[in-house]
Each structure stands twice: as structure tokens, then as C-alpha cells.
Amino acid sequence: MNVKEAIEKLNLKVLVEDDFQREITDCYIGDLLSWVMGRAPENSIWLTVMGNINSIAVATLADVSTIVLVENASLDDDAKAKAEAHGVNILSTEENAYHLATKIYELLK
Fold this sequence. Notes:
By secondary structure, the chain is α/β, with parallel strands linked by helices. The protein has five helices and five strands, in the order αββαβαβαβα.
């Protein structure tokens, strides 16, 4: 599945668009940025409530396909600008991480 397909199938809102053809091969849930940086699989869809500038750095270092801000978590202006500058896809949903992850699991299996 790629980012575009995830947006369509999971009804996600686009906050920052870069490469929607990027493949998603895994899912990771986490809000402790140092933990995510060392453990999120490359090309994963990362579910978090962290919409700050530090999460963009972590997404870049971990090389995730996209960030999804769950539970309508907000993306601050500095983070949005950094995501646009560094090519990080950012999406949003009102769903919680657990419910969204179960749907992602079904799509990826």
C-alpha cells in the first residue's frame, strides 16, 4: 500500500503532502520520540499525537513513509514548515491509534 491508498482507504486528512507514492510496509505507534527514533521501521506509517517540530526530525531520521496525527492532534506551524522543507507527509484522523492500527493491519496483511 502507498500513502495515497492509505489516505483513501482510511479516510485520512492531508496536512502536508510530499510523496504520496511512497510505500507503506509497516505501522508504528509511539509518542516518546527517542523511542520512536530507534524503533520505528523504515517505510512505516507512524501514528502519534506529537505534532511538533521534533517529530519531523524523528520521522526523517527513522525514514517513515508518513506521520498520522491521531485523535485530531494538532500540527504546529513550525512543524508544518519543517515537514514541507524536508518532504515529510503528514496526515490526520479523529480516530485513536489502536482503532486506526487495526485497520492498517488488515490492509497490510
